[in-house]
Design goal:
There is one protein chain. With 289 residues, the chain is of the alpha+beta class. The protein has two domains: 4-115 and 262-280, Rossmann fold (3-Layer(aba) Sandwich); 118-257, Probable inorganic polyphosphate/atp-NAD kinase, domain 2 (Tumour Suppressor Smad4, Sandwich), CATH 2.60.200. Helix content is 17%, strand content 33%. Strands 6, 7, 9, 10, 11, 15 and 18 form a seven-stranded antiparallel sheet that branches. The chain has a six-stranded antiparallel sheet with strand order 14-13-12-8-16-17, with no helix packed on it. The chain is globular and about 60 Å long. The termini are far apart.
């Protein structure tokens, strides 16, 4: 019996648009396409009767991130086909999915990695909002970033771990990331690279005005909360670089592991650490030395 597949294509990407018709025909010869969605949207799937064995997503890492939010509550595995620049989340390119077609669309089960996601809520205590009702609620596969924003003066954040206040963080902000997101913004800010099979979260300060405030790795069961003590007019919470909420002094952001994981299909011919070396140039010496 053919596998049931949802085809999701980011048609804003020129290369996807060029290849879509041929790929659709190739896919239809190997699987049953039960639905087709635009990859430019992350609107939740509302058809409760939709059954699929996987979603094949054509695009870059940004498309994978938006479709993870879209599909996480369905439990449908996501197979990413990279058409972007880096493509760290997508384990396949166009040639790779064709090479592995027998494994992917055959009778064997899919090789998947269950990735944790972050849930964030923003509570506002300004006398106008219900303090028990969040003004913002979203999930993210990669990271939640509290960024200082314009006019880019230092902000101050009170971090709490498991209900215990830590020393305030003064600087340009804070990143909470998953293992999948640890190779993104967090690693650029000096955070650790987390093995993708770990069940944990990392907290990385952004340009902290202290030599002693280091990145922290916590259990996903550890409640993480941040109260904004001092903000700029442009201070913002950004989820996966795509969803955002402006923040004010006094706002409280409550973050933690989401109740559902998103399964990403893994290339059986791939290896995470080899990909890290090839795409992130792990350990490479600067050119010209």
């Amino acid at each position: 019996m053919s596998k049931r597949v949802i085809l999701i294509a980011n048609q804003d990407h020129p290369d996807v648009l060029d290849q879509l018709a041929d790929f659709r025909q190739w896919l239809a010869e190997r699987a049953q396409i039960v639905a087709e969605f635009e990859g430019q949207s992350d609107a939740p799937v509302v058809d409760d009767g939709l059954k699929a064995d996987m979603a094949v997503v054509l695009g870059g890492d940004g498309t994978i991130l938006s479709q993870a939010r879209r599909l996480v509550n369905t439990g449908i595995p996501i197979l990413g086909v990279n058409f972007g620049h880096l493509g760290f989340l997508a384990d396949f390119d166009l040639a790779g999915i064709k090479r592995q077609a027998r494994h992917i669309f055959g009778d064997n089960g899919l090789l998947v990695r269950e990735c944790i996601m972050i849930e964030a809520r923003v509570f506002r205590y300004d006398g106008e909002q219900n303090p028990n009702s969040p003004v913002f609620h979203q999930v993210a596969l990669n990271d939640c970033v509290i960024t200082s924003g314009p006019p880019f003066r230092m902000i101050e954040l009170q971090l709490e771990l498991d209900g215990q206040p830590t020393p305030p963080v003064q600087g340009d902000g804070l990143i909470l990331c998953t293992p999948a997101g640890s190779t993104g913004y967090s690693v650029s800010a000096g955070g650790p690279i987390l093995s993708p099979d770990l069940d944990c979260l990392a907290i990385t300060p952004i340009a902290a005005h202290s030599l002693a405030f280091r990145p922290i790795v916590v259990s996903p069961a550890c409640p993480v909360a941040v109260t904004v003590l001092r903000a700029n007019p442009g201070t913002t919470l950004v989820m996966d670089g795509q969803c955002s909420q402006e923040l004010k002094a006094g706002d409280r952001i409550v973050m933690g592991k989401y109740c559902r994981k998103v399964p990403l299909v893994i290339n059986p011919a791939g290896n995470y650490w080899r990909t890290l070396i090839r795409k992130m140039h792990w350990g490479a010496t600067p050119k010209g030395i």
